[in-house]
Structures are given as structure tokens and as C-alpha cells.
Amino acid sequence: MAFAVTVDLVMLTVRQDALCALLVRRAIPPYESAWALPGGFVREDEDLTDAAVRELSEETGIQREAAHLEQLATYGTPARDPRARVVTVAYLALLPAAPTPKAGTDAAEAEWCRVADLPALAFDHARILEDGIERARAKLEYSPLATAFCPPQFTIAELRAVYEAVWSATLDPRNFHRKATTTPGFVVPTGRSTTGDRGRPAQLFTKGPATVLHPPLLRATPPTT
Amino acid sequence: MAFAVTVDLVMLTVRQDALCALLVRRAIPPYESAWALPGGFVREDEDLTDAAVRELSEETGIQREAAHLEQLATYGTPARDPRARVVTVAYLALLPAAPTPKAGTDAAEAEWCRVADLPALAFDHARILEDGIERARAKLEYSPLATAFCPPQFTIAELRAVYEAVWSATLDPRNFHRKATTTPGFVVPTGRSTTGDRGRPAQLFTKGPATVLHPPLLRATPPTT
DNA sequence: CTAATAGTGTCTGTAAGACAGTATCCA
DNA sequence: TGGATACTGTCTTACAGACACTATTAG
């Protein structure tokens, strides 16, 4: 039994305090002119991750090191593509400050779209995107991954804005500051500060060496009934 | 480009206070007579999850409802199978009290093997198994999944034994009891008790409705330096 | 000066770790 | 009665949530 294997990307970033996903408009059938996730076929002798990296740079020109990239899940329902039996390996990419998208070869148009206001998507891409968003939301709790949405140097307020955008929540600035700066390995002070803004200059930080947050930074405190 | 797609299973259970994985001995080349994860090719018009369920029951005769089954990750390095380009979708299955394995059609022999003492495995199965074990260990922290290792009715001590086996750690019985019984939705008392054991009878519990543990049951308290 | 943002300090409730003590079975 | 296991209670410490205050810039 022969399958076609594709790689699809859930690319997320934070623009204007809103979580956004990159969508492309399909130029060819099926689902011609519909919005879809960027992606493409895996080449012979190409590793899955390499294919994802290739798609990432084709879509945004971004380097692999500048973004966080991880495998999300694989989708292979028999009828998901009308042309043939296609199994797609979805990857999740978290990007800092969004560069203007430039259309790739397969895509007529590419655009950052707020996840709160998504159009209908081709194939089962709505489901895949949903899974990617939920993965990102969950990972902010127990991993320092929020820094992947930030530029190389960032302030605590910028980091907090990422959490607020991804979770659609408001966080207490004082408590967040304490949490972010005291959690070992989360952020590293650079000694430098911002300047030119309206208020007191803010310290600039870099992504720390930690791979997990201990203790985690939990979302909604559920009613402890 | 045509790929073959297989499904491989990381099946875990707890036997005699040790975390064990099901391994099969390969009957055909490549890697003939080597240990490997149970798995097989995905059939035409078969969903990936259906293929995993099929393999699960072929190997152990276990019903889908009696176990926890979730997608783990997908592995598709070009040279991972010498025969052809094979992409494998790995699934993680957590099973209660281990039934004696019976060999399937592809497998000459099947055996539960302690994960602390694994043999060399065919293909990249060692890596897949490692990823599965780590996933299970991590999920016990923030999900009520430990109950998947238990029979339908279980005591708090049995549940604690699962944690201790999977984490290779010792937990305080009193504190664990408090944590397990007060975390909302983790376990539900049945009113019934064990009998015939050496000490005081223990209350029997059932898996609760919660899908996440709030707050989580964290592993190793890292040195809060 | 005022407005605005950054950062620090304090109080309080909750929950985890440590550990003592009580309850209920079997032999 | 003794041993073994199940369960409950208390104390201490750590940390999250709430909120008041000080610090440093631009205009």
C-alpha cells in the first residue's frame, strides 16, 4: 500500500497582542482558493523534520534557529484528501515578531490571521490548527516556550503580553514579574535596558537555559471547590 | 513519491512494581530474531488509530476501552528501514494488570520486558520506546492517566505503586493518599473494600471524570536553590 | 510638575513535605 | 496479642494571588 506523505505547518506568532496563525490561499485544486495551512510533500530521502524546516523557510524566510519547531501530530484519515491517501505530519512553529509573509511557490497569498477569527480551512486543517493552538497554550504552562514568541532580547512586560495573548487572559504584572524572574533558568538578565519609551526603562532579558518550568506557571486557577 | 506507513505500539504496563514494555521477536528480515515493538502496516482505507487498535488487540486481545491509547509521534528518517521508505506512526498504550502475551502472526514470541533492563531493539525502536516512556512519565504529573495502569477498581496503595514504578521513586503514603483523594475528579470512591489481605481493608476507587489534574502531582522537587 | 511604565514589598490563603498517631483487618 | 496495612491529623514551609508603594523615564 502506497501513501503520500506531506508536512503541514501550524505557524503561530503574536501580533498586536493577538495570537495569529499563518494561512495561505491555495492556488490549485482541491480546495482551490481556500485558506489552508502552509505545507507540502515530503521529498524522497528527506527527513520529516527537514521537510518542515524547508517549508518554514519557504514561507517566511526564517532560519530554523530563530524559531521553535516541534512535531505536533500526524493525521491520516483515509478520506482527508480527495486525490489520494495522504498522511500528513503536522509541525508546530512558534515565531517571534512576525515578518511580513511572502507567498511561496504553491501559495498565491499568505496572511497572518487572528486565531480568534479564523476562516474556514481546506482539508482537516481546522482541526490541525486547533490542536496546535491547544498545544501551544498548554506548553506555556510548564515550559519556557513563551520566549520563542519574543525577539532575542525582551522585557518582562513583553513576555507577559505573550502569555496574555496566547491564553486570552490578564495576568498581574507584579506577580508575573516575580514568577518569571525567580523561576530558575527561565530568563537571564542582560544588564541592558530599553530606552525611548514612555515610562521607566525596562531591563532586557534573554531566554534562559531551562527546558521545563519548575514549578509550572498555571493557567486559570480552577474553582477549588 | 510513495511511502509505506506503519503503526508501532509502545505498550506499557506495571508488573510486580516494575514498568514493563511489550516486545516481540521478529520472525522475518530485516532484523530477523531481534526484539522490536509490535506493529504493522496500515491498510488501505484504514485510519491510523484503527490500525493501532487492531495491532493492540492482535497482540494482547485487549479491548480498546480497557486501555488508554494515544498517538505518540511519527518517525520517518529516510534510512530507518533498509527495505523502503517507511514512515511509522507510533502509539502509546497504557494497560492494566498484564495479560499473558500471545504471539501474533508476525511475531514469533512476545514478552513483557522491564524498561530498566531492555535488550537492543530493531530499527529505531529504542528511541521510540524511550519517547513513549518519557511521555508516560510526564503525563502522570498533570493527568489522571495512572488509573489506566490499574484494574477497574483499585486502592490508593495500588495507584501509588503505579506512580512509584513509573517514576522509580518512593512517595509518602499519607501525603499521596491526601493528594489523590482531594484532587477533584481523580478517583471516585465505590464504597466497597478489599478483603483477604494482611492488614486493614482498603477502600476501592474508580477512575474519576477529570482529564487534567489541578494542581498537578509533580515529580522530583528540584533543589529550590 | 504629571503621566506612564518598571520594579519591590507585604499580607494571606492554600497546598505540599515531614512525620505521629489511630483504625481495622489476619494469624 | 502482635503484626501489618489503611487512614487521619498536625506542623512547617513554600508559593500564588491580591494589592500598595517606590523608582525612573518622557513631556
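Residues 155-157, 173-174, 177-178, 197-203, 224 of chain B lie near DNA strand D (CB under 10 Å from a C1').
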